[in-house]
Amino acid sequence: MHFASPAPQFDPTPARRNIGWFLAAPVTAVLLSLVLSAVLIANYQSRHQGRIFTGVMVGDVDVSQMDRATAEEAIAEAVAYTYAETITLTDPTSGRQWQLTPADVGLAVDVPATVEAAYQTGRSGGPLQRVRDMFNGWYYGRTISPIMVLDEAKLNEKLAEIAAEVNQPAVNAAVEVAGETAVYTPGQSGRALDMADARARLLPVLTGLQSAQIELLVNQTSPTIYDDAPGAARIQRIIDGGPVTFYLQEPLDSEDLAPVTLPPEQLRQWLRVEVTEQADGSLTHNVFLDENAARQWLAQYGEQIYREPVNARFYFDDATQELVLVSPHINGRELDIEATLEQLKAQVETPNRSVPFIVNDIVPTVNANATAEELGITELVSEATTWFYGSSDAR
């Protein structure tokens, strides 16, 4: 009978013991490091209980190891930008300036929120994030920008106050005629602060905590009714001009009509005003004379100016069948009211206040240039001689 011997078996226990001894040191070191780190972190946190971690700054203010109240006082004292007159606004036309602090236009440091952000450095996020923030703050330092709050309502209110000082309403041109008086007020352009532009240029300055000198944009505003310079001067001359003198350019004799004066009060009564729209949509004044009133005034001098024409005198020459001039004709004249009125209208808006009476010549039908044929004379109709006692045949 044969018996098989059992196969040899491997015992892993010694190998495991060797590996365990080999890993024991590193694992122990890691565990000790973790424990030590935890102790250090706990100690670090304990020393900063209720205080901001070391290395944290707000702007240029070191708030390390400060409690919230102390940090708020330090930040409030140090952040003086908002209370310094660092902003200058200038009106380019008048040169007037406004010195403002950021606080005047609504900028303020939210001190409690800023302190809370500093306090939460190393206390927010996951565990690793907290440890990393604590270490970076302690080793490298950590700077936090102040949390600024801009009250846009206060900014708009301040700009509105400045606009109230800058703005000037446009003044419409006006012509006021009352009886014998007339007053002309030229139009004036207004001024309006562009608040949107001022706001847009202020915001980067405020958010960047900068000092700045800003030139305000002030727009010109046009009145609804405006007369340009020549038009305004024309209206002013019509209203403020002196009396108008009418005269005959070629008086017939010393007894002819003397110069006639139209007083300015009478002229102003004839003024009429209307507002007209130009091609560009703008409105202007049109000042003109009441032509009917002027015609009636001129007509009163028509009879004094009128002169009856005098016919020429001829005798008929049978031999030549022509008229022979004995005495020339004399033209008559009459006042041309319409032409004189047009002359007045042309000159009333100029410095020349002397207006001629425009007259038309009245040429008689029997004039020096008339022919026998034109007059219908073809032969001697009659001839007579008159005499009186003591006269000769020649007479």
Describe the structure.
The protein has 395 residues and is of the alpha+beta class. The protein has a domain at 229-375: Ubiquitin-like (UB roll) (Roll). Helix content is 36%, strand content 23%. The protein is built from 12 helices and 21 strands. Helix 9 (291-299) crosses helix 11 (337-347).
CATH architecture of the domain at 229-375: Roll
- Our Rg estimate from Cα atoms comes to 55 Å
Query: Which topology of the domain at 229-375 does CATH recognise?
Result: Ubiquitin-like (UB roll)
List segments where confidence is low: pLDDT < 50 over at least 5 consecutive residues: 1-5
Features:
395 residues, alpha+beta, Ubiquitin-like (UB roll), three-stranded mixed sheet, 12 helices, 36% helix, disordered N terminus
Brief digest:
With 395 residues, this protein is α+β, with helices and mostly antiparallel strands. The protein is built from twelve helices and 21 strands. The chain has helices at residues 13-47, 68-78, 111-119, 127-139, 152-166, 195-207, 229-240, 264-269, 291-299, 302-305, 337-347, 372-375, and strands at residues 56-58, 61-62, 87-90, 97-100, 107-109, 142-144, 148-150, 174-178, 181-185, 190-193, 212-215, 218-221, 244-248, 260-262, 271-277, 283-289, 313-317, 322-327, 332-335, 354-357, 359-362.
